Fold:
Amino acid sequence: MKFLFCFHVAVYLLPLAFLAPASLAWCSLGDNSIAIQSDQLQMHGTVRVVTTGRYSMHEIRTPSGGTIREYVSPGGTVFAVGWDGPGVPDLKQILGSYFDTMKQTAARRRGHGPLVIDTPEFYFVQSGHMRSFHGTARLPQQLPQGVSAADIK
Amino acid sequence: MAACGGSSSNNGGEDGKILSVSVSCNPTLIQGGQTSKCTAGISATGKAGYTTVNWSLTAGSISDLGIFTAPPVDASSRITVTASAGGKSGSAVIMVNPPNTGSNVVPITVDAGPTNNYVNGAFASVTLCVPGTTNCQTIDHLLVDTGSSGVRILDSVLTLPLPQQTVNGNLVAECAQYADGAAWGYVAAADIGLGGQKSTTVPGASFTGVPVQAIGTSVVQVPQSCSAKGTLKESVEALGANGILGVGLYKQDCGTYCTSNLDPNFPFYYSCSGGKCSQVTLALTDQVQNPVWLLPHDNNGVLILLYDCEGCGQLNGSLILGVDTQGDNLLADTGLYTTTPDGNFQKVTLNGIDYVSNCGASSKPACLDIDSGSNALFILDATTLGVSQCSGSNSSFYCQSPDKSINPTTVGINNASNSAWISMGDADSLLSSHPAVPAFSNLAGPNPGSFDYGLPFFYLRPVFTIIEGGSTTKGVGPAWAY
Structure:
């Protein structure tokens, strides 16, 4: 059983040379960055980090050019995620404890099309079809000061 | 028809000039003797827009207010309605008396489907055969889906012993992905009968028959990397149909991405042995195929016609094979809009705002498409449109009363453009009614930043889907025309 830190803890604690081009453990929506997770699905790719005064955004670019983004509050909580690529990414990994909510809502839906979930606790949208998908998810009640939905891509 | 207030003597000169004229008619699919409302839009500088337009037609009649009346005859025809002003003109095409018989015609029904609760679903039948034999099965109620490519049948519905596809001796399976879930199942080969034709071979393949997907988990268990994509559509109840008839823009469902990428973040095809599956690349010939491009003729795309609106007791429809190949599928003056390589418009403009396609990218993404497999008009968000969103179990839809109408302009990569009026209504009231024909032209819902024109867009409006590489009189696919 592997014990892996969420990657952005690794960024702060470990030399950069350790990371690129590394297999990185990925945190899930709602996780705090000091969480320790085991048997995580590893995402392969290169990382870039964008830091603003209000949050930091960690984006992994996968070998095929798809991207997955995590938005982290100053307190270390993953308050939003975003993704783009030729397929649907590992949403179980990305959404963490919110994955089941997403599945249940999708299963109850009448018909087919883009999936939108809009509740005070959890917001999710995914559009597209095979060859290109785009989606975001966020925890509206956990957006840091000064951050709006428009910041999340 | 006056585009703005003002007298008709104010028509240019030092008061500006007309830049362009466009025409939008609704509906564009009617029977002989019926009417359509046509509107002329004028783009002008100064006071030049305060003018009347001159209408001209290839048949029928039109009033000063733009009410077009089709000739009261039974023959099928395509009529062009043109408006001109200040030396500029624009036009729209109206189809009168849609064809519904012929060797390239596959009947479509819009009904509640095998689960008896589907709305805005267009269903058709296909006949599958064990390759090269007369051991066949006709499967009804496949969802006609121009947003995907490939034939998929629920394994629980399939009774034929279709040969399972293998690669290096191992079974091939696929995690087919959609915005709202995934479909897992093995790949098999079949002869596919559509209308009066059959697809039986993939050029360059080492096997007979055409790859299709059998959705289910009885032959191969779903791997974690597929169940991690979302909810699985593995049953008639989950899918709402017996399968999917993907007749979209592409020849294969995945394409070149799957011939050369083994990005573990985005798996599609798998090789399975002893119950364990791992991601593989797969040659184009071996992937699940759009059955249309493999037909002997009428194979460059499809035309979908859905006519007689809800409340009329019956919704007739046809999936017509081919574009510009027979008298029943001619583009004539219909505009054609080529798509991006990943199947989106170049942009959509609404109320002066451009939504530029960038569906699979991280900056200002917008997914802009026409998709008969989506069962509503999924447009932007409630705040941007000024409509109300439903709460409760219908939260995927808008609950707007009274209906709100908008007129977005879609633009192809070829810079050809067109606009169409669409309406958004109250899903709570629509979905709690149970009409004999569950076809709602004004069922709409949110899709932030994006436009997904689902089946309601096809009601009373001929829509062509042209496959990649398919040649027509107006351009080469991938493209839509309407």
